[in-house]
């Protein structure tokens, strides 16, 4: 015990050498082991995670029979903490962390994931991708909307693409989805008035994960607002400009009144439940989380998939001043703390995964691929009614900041938007508080005491 | 007490055996060795797992260290502390925690004592009643939190469903500023009223019968008997229970994490929850350590109070 | 004061200090009190009953509005889902097994470390004994969210993050203070004269403890261990921050993880909660005589 104390003290004093840049992966894949090996992922608990494990164990083992794939899952609320506490421990039980695209900055500046720029150059056909998708899930510093910086380093490759889809009740509002945001709101209003017990809208409002923040960001984008000016690192005065204020006003004063009472803590699962229970005219949710809506066992809308599809329509988001949609989905990265054999296997897996035919198979297995050819393939487009929505949305995507301070920025936005949605703050105060507090986080780069309060 | 704990009987500095008759010298030494051998493993574990981490946290609290960003820790001395003590965000959480602790502990004390009093007046079925009442206390906070989240759901929760059949409107239990905090207090009260009840009951059943008989001969009013006999005898024990609950409530984390995750906005974020965010969202380890040390200071004060009353009770 | 929990929780008439009938309506008042108690009992127990009911309802009845109290189809599917998943054992059942290992081993360790210490504190005059004992108890009061920060930093030096051993160590550390306080009370009840007599017969002090005192302490040890077990079994904060992989995660974070995916299966949450709570309730019933001491960390003795 005493030895433990001494050892800990020594370690505590000697651990920090200050080097914090991401280590580089080799350009070519090192020789792979022939011994049995378990390649571990970490993701949050949702259907794509189980789909990935089943898919990889069925397909990847055809080329690498000594490898087993294990996808560790944690609750969504605990996802960031679970990955970054292990990064902090410099020991990970996963080889391939599946980071949210916004986590990249934090992981790169801490040196937690490998720089795979050279590996990608040598092994991946980058022309097969929409450049923005490649950038969104791997590039740091972050790409501006729709562009990829050819000179920036890459730290990940796309695993699962995603965006919001509008889910609407064809039997209640008609076959044709509303085209503008204003129209969407008035259709929802009418639908709610005509159908007692059904609310006009259902969307993410919770204060955990990135729920309420993505909702505000989406409306902000649609109404022509911006989250920040990345060049001058300015948030205050940008997010709360006239467009930002209008977006917050639309969200709180026009959209929120059309939602169910008590929906102020809803996230993916609650929105799905509302749709499945027939309690919402129009709902917004991540495409990758919408598969369960077609399961008759969980739905009151029909006893077969076809019956449900008679009632549910899936469409791209309405546009207003812009046609932007939120970028979701995640990339694969390589943990800097994995054993060399596992890192090599991880690179090999990524190379394998990004092949055209594998991407199509992944699409057929329920995944959302990123290669353009796979996105246009019938395997993908026929796999689910929302897949066409994704394909149509790719050129319209915008992401949040993926700076190292992301976790705190999103928490500020989440809690304030959630407060505004639930009447704990006025929309104006909430937005100004977001601007002020987020700016404070960005500006406190030169660390002093009291950071993080 | 039926078994007075001899805490107050040993004399400081005395290292000999307390059990008479005093054995021979060699045995005395072996007794001492035995005491050391038996006590030190436990103490060493506590030193390693409780004291050392706290000292480490104390050191980190004077630095700007971050567990993930790496780089050496720079001394910022009291900057973390002043930042915390002057932060409006922290004041807000302190107020929330205070309301929660006072509200929850007061409510469960009143309810718990009332139930204990009612049970103590029954002659039959006491054991069964007590056992039934104790069930909530034994459940994990995770289970309690999840289940109340389900019952308090505004749409298909059973509470609103029952209110509905009574002709009352829906209440947004978890998503309005005021009701969310009330919900937390109610759930905590549901779980911990049995605790107060149990201890109050222990006190109530211990009031000697002859005191009541004497009072009964004097034809004293029932309120008078309650005030002059029951309460003074139960009060010390009850106070211990209340302090114990206050310490536990002050540390509250699990229930907030599951029931509201601090919402709406940050209106149900307790100090513990805020520390968690500072420590694991921003990984501002230095600040979080200072924050934690300040919380520990509050706990130490409460614990000292608790122990003082405990000691008094034992000496009684 | 003689506080007896045995009496408080044992059945049957214990001590009749109910005052004689009041001048007006002693009987009416008694009825009122019974009614009040019944109402309170129903309120306190309703959530538990509702949990059990939800666990045997089909999903469409779980979401029924207005809520269904009696007329629903009974199903045991949710309980099946707790243990069996499509590919064999469910992740939830693995976490239950982890909980058994972590809670079991940490309880044994806390008992092995705590019982001898409690005996020594009871029998010998140790320097500053009072201060030591109070220090020991106060470590148990530290807020877990605060302790977990330095523990996390310490564990990462030893590779104890996301290991069962890490959880076992911290649970042991939290249970040792409790074990010492609780057991000291039990040791105090065993007269030291037994050991003195044995020593006069030629046994060493250690032998006297081992052969004469320890057997008398066994019931107390069992009760103490059960409370330690309940604490470790229910613990959430350390578990969620120090572990993340399926084969280490204990049941509380696993159950909490059942919500927050893409669908919520409240029937499964309820069934998992029932399975999880059942052993605790059984154990708590077994040690009902020591509840007051148990829930106050052994500080308040009967």
From TrEMBL, chain A:
The keyword Transcription regulation does not apply. Coiled coil: none annotated. The keyword ATP-binding does not apply. InterPro entries: Bact_solute-bd_prot1 (IPR050490), SBP (IPR006059). Pfam families: SBP_bac_1. Keywords: Signal, Transport. Belongs to the bacterial solute-binding protein 1 family. This is ABC transporter substrate-binding protein. It comes from Planotetraspora mira.
Automatic annotation (TrEMBL), chain B:
Its main location: membrane. Residues 94-306 form the ABC transmembrane type-1 domain. One of its GO terms (biological process) is transmembrane transport. It comes from the Bacteria. Pfam families: BPD_transp_1. SUPFAM superfamilies: MalF N-terminal region-like (SSF160964), MetI-like (SSF161098). It is found in: Cell membrane; Membrane. GO terms for cellular component: plasma membrane. The chain crosses the membrane at residues 34-59, 98-120, 127-148, 181-204, 224-244, 288-307. Residues 1-27 are annotated as: Disordered. It is a multi-pass membrane protein. Keywords: Membrane, Transmembrane, Transmembrane helix, Transport. Belongs to the binding-protein-dependent transport system permease family. This is ABC transporter permease.
Automatic annotation (TrEMBL), chain C:
Residues 96-287 form the ABC transmembrane type-1 domain. InterPro entries: BP-dep_ABC_trans_perm (IPR050901), MetI-like (IPR000515), MetI-like_sf (IPR035906). The keyword tRNA-binding does not apply. Coiled coil: none annotated. It is found in: Cell membrane. The chain crosses the membrane at residues 31-52, 96-121, 133-155, 167-187, 208-233, 266-287. It is a multi-pass membrane protein. It holds the Pfam family BPD_transp_1. One of its GO terms (cellular component) is plasma membrane. One of its GO terms (biological process) is transmembrane transport. Residues 1-22 are annotated as: Disordered. Keywords: Cell membrane, Membrane, Transmembrane, Transmembrane helix, Transport. Its main location: membrane. PANTHER family: ABC TRANSPORTER PERMEASE PROTEIN, MALTOSE TRANSPORT SYSTEM PERMEASE-RELATED. Belongs to the binding-protein-dependent transport system permease family. This is ABC transporter permease. It comes from Planotetraspora mira.
């Amino acid at each position: 015990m005493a030895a433990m104390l001494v050892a800990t003290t020594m370690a505590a004093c000697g651990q920090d050498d200050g080097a914090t840049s991401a280590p580089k992966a080799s350009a070519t894949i090192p020789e792979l082991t022939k011994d049995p090996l378990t390649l571990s992922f970490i993701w949050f608990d949702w259907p794509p995670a189980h789909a990935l494990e089943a898919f990889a164990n069925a397909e990847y083992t055809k080329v690498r029979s000594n490898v087993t794939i294990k996808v560790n899952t944690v609750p969504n609320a605990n996802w960031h903490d679970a990955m970054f506490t292990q990064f902090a421990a410099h020991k990970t039980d996963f080889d391939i962390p599946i980071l949210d695209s916004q986590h990249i900055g934090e992981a790169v500046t801490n040196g937690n994931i490998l720089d795979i720029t050279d590996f990608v150059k040598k092994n991946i056909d980058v022309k097969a991708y929409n450049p923005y998708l490649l950038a969104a899930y791997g590039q740091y510093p972050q790409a501006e909307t729709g562009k990829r910086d050819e000179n920036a380093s890459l730290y990940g490759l796309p695993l699962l693409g995603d965006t919001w889809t509008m889910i609407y009740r064809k039997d209640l509002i008609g076959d044709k989805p509303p085209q503008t945001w204003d129209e969407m709101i008035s259709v929802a209003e009418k639908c709610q008035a005509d159908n007692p017990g059904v609310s006009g809208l259902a969307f993410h409002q919770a204060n955990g994960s990135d729920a309420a923040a993505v909702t505000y960001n989406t409306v902000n984008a649609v109404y022509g607002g911006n989250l920040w000016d990345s060049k001058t690192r300015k948030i205050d005065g940008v997010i709360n400009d006239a467009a930002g204020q209008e977006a917050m006003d639309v969200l709180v004063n026009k959209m929120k009144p059309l939602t169910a009472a008590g929906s102020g803590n809803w996230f993916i699962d609650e929105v799905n439940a509302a749709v499945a229970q027939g309690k919402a005219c129009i709902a917004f949710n991540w495409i990758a989380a919408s598969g369960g809506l077609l399961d008759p066992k969980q739905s009151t809308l029909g006893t077969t998939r076809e019956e449900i599809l008679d009632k549910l329509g899936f469409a791209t988001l309405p546009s207003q001043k812009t046609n932007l949609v939120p970028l979701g989905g995640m990339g694969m990265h390589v943990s800097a703390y994995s054993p060399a054999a596992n890192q090599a296997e991880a690179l090999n897996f990524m190379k394998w995964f990004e092949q055209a035919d594998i991407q199509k198979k992944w699409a057929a297995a329920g995944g959302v691929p990123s290669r353009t050819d796979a996105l246009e393939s019938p395997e993908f487009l026929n796999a689910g009614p929302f897949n066409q929505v994704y394909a149509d949305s790719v050129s319209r995507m915008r992401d949040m900041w993926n700076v190292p301070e992301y976790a705190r920025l999103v928490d500020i936005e989440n809690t304030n938007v959630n407060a505004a949605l639930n009447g704990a703050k006025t929309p104006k105060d909430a937005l100004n508080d977001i601007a002020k507090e987020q700016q404070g986080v960005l500006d406190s780069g030169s660390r002093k005491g009291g950071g993080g309060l | 007490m039926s078994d007075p704990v001899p805490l107050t009987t040993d004399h400081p500095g005395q290292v000999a055996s307390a059990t008479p008759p005093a054995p021979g010298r060699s045995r005395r030494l072996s007794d001492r060795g035995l005491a050391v051998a038996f006590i030190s493993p436990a103490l060493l574990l506590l030193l390693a797992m409780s004291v050392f981490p706290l000292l480490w946290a104390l050191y980190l609290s004077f630095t700007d260290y971050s567990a993930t960003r790496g780089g050496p820790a720079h001394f910022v001395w009291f900057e973390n502390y002043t930042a915390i003590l002057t932060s409006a965000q922290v004041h807000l959480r302190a107020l929330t925690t205070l309301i929660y602790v006072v509200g929850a502990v007061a409510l469960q004390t009143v309810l718990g004592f009332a139930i204990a009093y009612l049970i103590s007046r029954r002659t039959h079925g006491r054991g069964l009643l007590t056992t039934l009442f104790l069930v909530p206390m034994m459940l994990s906070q995770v289970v309690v939190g999840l289940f109340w989240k389900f019952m308090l759901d505004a749409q298909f929760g059973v509470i609103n469903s029952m209110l509905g059949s009574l002709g009352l409107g829906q209440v947004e239990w978890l998503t309005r500023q005021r009701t969310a905090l009330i919900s937390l207090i109610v759930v905590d009260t549901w779980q911990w009223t049995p605790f107060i009840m149990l201890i109050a009951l222990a006190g109530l059943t211990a009031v000697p019968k002859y005191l009541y008989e004497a009072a009964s001969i004097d034809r004293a009013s029932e309120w008078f008997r309650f005030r002059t006999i029951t309460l003074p005898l139960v009060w010390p024990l009850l106070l211990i229970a209340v302090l114990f609950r206050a310490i536990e409530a002050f540390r509250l984390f699990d229930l907030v994490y599951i029931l509201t995750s601090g919402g709406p906005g940050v209106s149900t974020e307790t100090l513990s929850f805020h520390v968690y965010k500072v420590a694991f969202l921003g990984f501002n380890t230095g600040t979080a350590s200072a924050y934690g040390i300040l919380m520990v200071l509050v706990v130490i004060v409460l614990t000292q109070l608790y122990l003082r009353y405990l000691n008094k009770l034992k000496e009684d | 004061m003689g506080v007896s929990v045995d009496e408080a929780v044992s059945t049957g008439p214990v001590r009749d200090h109910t005052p004689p009938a009041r001048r007006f309506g002693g009987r009416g008042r008694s009825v009122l009190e019974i009614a009040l108690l019944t109402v309170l009992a129903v309120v306190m127990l309703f959530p538990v009953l509702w949990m059990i009911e939800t666990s045997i309802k089909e999903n469409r009845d779980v979401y029924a509005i207005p809520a269904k109290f009696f007329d629903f189809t009974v199903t045991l599917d949710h309980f099946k889902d707790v243990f069996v998943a499509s590919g064999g054992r469910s992740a939830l059942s693995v976490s239950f097994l982890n909980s058994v290992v972590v809670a079991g081993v940490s309880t044994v360790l806390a008992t092995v470390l705590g019982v001898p210490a409690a005996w020594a504190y009871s029998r010998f005059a140790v320097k500053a004994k009072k201060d030591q004992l109070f220090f020991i108890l106060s470590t148990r009061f530290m807020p877990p969210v605060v302790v977990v920060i330095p523990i996390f930093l310490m564990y990462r030096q030893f590779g104890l993050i996301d290991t069962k051993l890490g959880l076992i160590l911290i649970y042991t550390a939290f249970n040792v203070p409790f074990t010492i306080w609780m057991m000291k009370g039990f040791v105090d009840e065993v007269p030291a004269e037994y050991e003195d007599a044995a020593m006069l017969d030629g046994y060493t002090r250690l032998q006297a403890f081992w052969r004469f005192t320890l057997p008398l302490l066994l019931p107390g040890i069992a009760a103490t261990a059960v409370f330690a077990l309940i604490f470790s079994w229910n613990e959430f904060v350390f578990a969620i921050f120090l572990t993340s992989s399926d084969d280490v995660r204990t049941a509380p974070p696993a159950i909490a993880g059942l919500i927050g995916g893409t669908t919520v299966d409240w029937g499964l949450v309820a069934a998992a909660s029932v399975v999880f709570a059942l052993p605790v309730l059984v154990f708590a019933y077994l040690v009902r005589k020591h509840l007051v001491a148990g829930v106050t960390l052994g500080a308040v003795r009967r």
